[in-house]
Amino acid sequence: QLQLVESGGDLAQPGGSLSLSCALSGFTLDHYAIGWFRQAPGKEREGVSCLSSKDRSTSYADSVKGRYTISRDNAKNTVYLQMNSLKPEDTAVYYCAAVFLPWGDCGLTDGEYDYWGQGTQVTVSS
Q1: Strand-pair category, 120-124 with 11-12
Q2: Out of 6, 16, 26, 85, which could bridge 2 as a Cys pair, Cβ 3.0 to 4.6 Å?
Q3: In the beta sheet, which residues pair with residue 43?
Q4: How far is CA 58 from CA 14, 43, 88, in A?
């Protein structure tokens, strides 16, 4: 059974940093692309970043480029999202998601992903 569990969400001040984790079970990162998405109240879910399986290529939304970094630890079967220079508009529930994609580049469209975690709340406020 494929399962994704996010953690690390918290309250942070503007300009601060948080690191989110997405622990995976039931599958490995060798054949799955992983994406991070977020949904703020009253807004549609948007893709934030993704990590491809084989070549580990990455993609970022323009709104987070230069501030967020996605990475993975194969030994821990975990994907991370390091978020720096946080802004109030980064406030949202953050989700990680997975799709079987042994080759090719990952995408930031939620319809491309088949498996989802339960989400973790990130609040940026002074």
Answers
A1: parallel
A2: 26
A3: none
A4: 25, 24, 24
8-60 per-position pLDDT tens digit: 999 999 999 999 999 999 988 889 999 999 999 999 999 999 999 877 799 99
Please give the Cα distance from 111 to 85 (Å, whole number). Answer: 29
Quick check: 4 and 119 in contact, CB under 8 A? no
Sheet of strand 3-7, all strands in order from the earlier edge strand to the far edge: 3-7, 18-25, 78-83, 68-73
Mean pLDDT of the chain: 95
- What whole-number distance in Å separates Cα of residue 64 and Cα of residue 34? 17
DSSP state of 52: -
The candidate with the shortest Cα–Cα distance to 113, out of 30, 51, 41, is: 51
Phi and psi at residue 116, to the nearest 5° = -135, 145
